[in-house]
C-alpha cells in the first residue's frame, strides 16, 4: 500500500502547477466578542432592504426558482447595469464577484509574450492571478506620495491593470491620466478596477463612460463594497462588445451559470433602490472625511482617500509609530484593521470606514494607546 500522509499524497497526485501556486490571503473574518471589524472594506451599513425582499419574493416561487437553472447570461441584471451607465447590453459582463471577472480578464487578454504592467503597490490578487495563469507582471513603482505617474507606463506591454481608487492607498487617478494610458497602448487591454469608485466625491471619477470611446478599455466594478453585498458575490465588467464576447466565450467554457437565481434577483433590486444607494454612499464619504480629519488631529499621516478606507501612518508618539504593534494592540481590544508587512507600506494601517460609533471606538482606543 502507498503511504497516505497529506504530503505524500500531494507529491504523488498534485500537478506541478498547483504545487507552485501561492494563493491570495483574504483579510480575516475573526470570531471575536465585541468585534469592531474595520479590516476588509465591507460596507458598515446593511444593503437596501429591497434586496432581501426580492430574494424572499423569488423564493416564494421556489418550485421554479430553485428547481430551474438561472438565466445563464443574467440578461435582466446586465440590462439594468447597461441602463445605469447608458451602455448597451452587449457592453456588460457579470461574474461571481469581481474577483472572478478579473480572473477571466487575465485569461482572455493578458496571456501575451510581454509583461503586464501594474502598480508596485496595488490589489494583492493581481500577482496571484498572474501566477495562476503564467503571466509575467512588471510592477511599476509609485511616486513618493503613493500616487501613480502614467508616464512610467510608457513601455511595450501585454496589458495594464490598476485599481482606481488604488488599494490599499485609496488614491484616485484622474480620468485624464487613464485616457493617456488608453491612447498610448492601443494594442493592449487597459483594465481599471473600480471596486471603490462609488465612494469618490470628485466629478468624472469613473472611467465607465470612456468604454464608448476606447475599444481597449475594461472597467471592472462590484456589488461588494458600495452596495454592501460582499456575501452575494456579484461583480461586473464594462467594455467594447468584442471584449465582452471574449469574456463570455471564456465563461461558457468554464462555468455557464456563475450568478445564481437569488443573486440575480438581489443585485437587480439593489440597482433599483437608487435613493438608498446614494444616501449610504454620501454617508460613508462624510464619515471618511470625519475620520481622516480626526486621525490627522491625532498626528496620523493620512493619504487622501477616495475609497471607503483610509491608509494612515501613525505618529511616533503612538507606540513609536510601530504599525504592527498598534495593529496587535487594537486587535486585543476586538478592533481589527489591516496591516501589510510589505516593503514601503509596513509603517501604515489600512482602516475601513465604519459607522460613526465604530470610528469613535477606534479613535478612543488609539488615543488611549498614545497615553
Ligand atoms: C474588494 C475588491 C475586489 C473584489 O471584489 P469582489 O467583487 O467581492 O470579488 C476587487 N478589486 C479590488 C481592488 C477590491 O478591493
UniProtKB/TrEMBL annotation:
Cofactor entry: pyridoxal 5'-phosphate
Modified residues annotated as N6-(pyridoxal phosphate)lysine in this record: 225
Name of the encoding gene: hisC
SUPFAM superfamilies referenced in this protein's UniProt entry, alphabetically: PLP-dependent transferases
Organism in which the protein naturally occurs: Faucicola atlantae
Family annotation (Pfam families): Aminotran_1_2
EC numbers on record: 2.6.1.9
Protein name as it appears in the record: Histidinol-phosphate aminotransferase
Gene Ontology biological-process entries: L-histidine biosynthetic process
Keyword Amino-acid biosynthesis: yes
Assembly mode: Homodimer.
Domain annotation Aminotransferase class I/classII large: ranges: 35-366
Pathway assignment: Amino-acid biosynthesis; L-histidine biosynthesis; L-histidine from 5-phospho-alpha-D-ribose 1-diphosphate: step 7/9
InterPro entries according to UniProt: Aminotrans_II_pyridoxalP_BS (IPR001917), Aminotransferase_I/II_large (IPR004839), HisP_aminotrans (IPR005861), HistidinolP_aminotransfase (IPR050106), PyrdxlP-dep_Trfase (IPR015424), PyrdxlP-dep_Trfase_major (IPR015421), PyrdxlP-dep_Trfase_small (IPR015422)
Transmembrane segments annotated in the record for this chain: none
PANTHER family: HISTIDINOL-PHOSPHATE AMINOTRANSFERASE (PTHR43643:SF3), HISTIDINOL-PHOSPHATE AMINOTRANSFERASE 2 (PTHR43643)
Annotated NCBIfam families: hisC
CDD domains: AAT_like
Catalysed reactions, as listed in the record: L-histidinol phosphate + 2-oxoglutarate = 3-(imidazol-4-yl)-2-oxopropyl phosphate + L-glutamate
Keywords: Amino-acid biosynthesis, Aminotransferase, Histidine biosynthesis, Pyridoxal phosphate, Transferase
Family, as annotated: Belongs to the class-II pyridoxal-phosphate-dependent aminotransferase family. Histidinol-phosphate aminotransferase subfamily.
GO molecular function: histidinol-phosphate transaminase activity; pyridoxal phosphate binding
Amino acid at each position: 500500500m502507498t503511504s497516505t500522509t497529506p504530503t505524500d499524497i500531494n507529491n504523488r497526485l498534485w500537478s506541478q502547477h498547483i504545487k507552485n501556486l501561492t494563493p491570495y490571503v483574504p483579510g480575516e473574518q475573526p470570531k471575536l466578542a465585541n468585534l469592531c471589524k474595520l479590516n476588509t472594506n465591507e460596507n458598515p451599513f446593511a444593503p437596501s432592504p429591497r434586496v432581501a425582499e426580492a430574494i424572499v419574493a423569488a423564493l416564494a416561487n421556489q418550485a421554479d426558482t430553485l428547481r430551474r437553472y438561472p438565466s445563464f447570461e443574467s440578461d435582466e441584471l446586465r440590462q439594468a447595469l447597461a441602463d445605469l451607465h447608458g451602455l448597451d447590453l452587449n457592453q456588460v459582463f457579470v461574474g461571481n464577484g469581481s474577483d472572478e471577472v478579473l480572473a477571466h480578464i487575465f485569461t482572455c487578454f493578458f496571456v501575451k509574450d510581454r509583461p503586464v504592467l501594474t502598480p508596485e503597490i496595488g490589489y494583492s490578487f493581481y500577482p496571484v492571478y498572474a501566477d495562476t495563469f503564467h503571466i509575467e507582471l512588471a510592477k511599476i513603482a509609485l511616486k513618493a506620495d503613493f500616487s501613480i505617474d502614467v508616464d512610467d507606463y510608457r513601455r511595450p506591454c501585454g496589458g495594464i491593470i490598476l485599481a482606481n481608487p488604488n488599494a490599499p492607498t485609496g488614491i484616485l487617478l484622474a480620468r485624464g491620466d487613464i485616457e493617456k494610458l488608453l491612447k498610448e497602448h492601443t494594442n493592449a487591454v487597459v483594465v481599471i478596477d473600480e471596486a471603490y469608485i462609488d465612494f469618490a466625491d470628485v466629478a468624472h471619477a469613473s472611467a465607465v463612460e470612456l468604454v464608448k470611446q476606447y475599444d481597449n478599455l475594461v472597467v471592472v466594478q462590484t456589488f461588494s463594497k458600495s452596495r454592501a453585498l460582499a456575501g452575494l458575490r456579484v461583480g461586473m465588467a464594462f467594455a467594447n462588445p468584442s471584449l465582452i464576447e471574449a469574456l463570455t466565450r471564456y465563461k461558457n467554457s468554464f462555468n455557464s451559470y456563475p450568478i445564481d437565481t437569488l443573486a440575480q434577483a438581489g443585485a437587480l433590486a439593489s440597482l433599483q433602490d437608487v435613493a438608498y444607494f446614494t444616501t449610504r454612499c454620501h454617508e460613508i464619504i462624510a464619515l471618511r472625511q470625519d475620520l481622516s480629519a480626526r486621525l490627522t488631529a491625532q498626528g496620523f499621516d493620512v493619504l487622501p482617500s477616495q475609497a471607503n478606507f483610509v491608509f494612515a501612518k501613525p505618529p511616533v508618539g503612538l507606540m513609536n509609530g510601530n504599525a504592527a504593534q498598534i495593529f496587535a494592540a487594537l486587535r486585543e481590544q476586538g478592533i481589527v484593521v489591516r496591516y501589510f508587512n510589505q516593503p514601503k507600506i509596513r509603517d501604515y494601517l489600512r482602516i475601513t470606514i465604519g459607522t460613526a460609533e465604530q470610528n469613535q471606538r477606534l479613535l478612543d482606543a488609539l488615543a488611549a494607546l498614545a497615553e
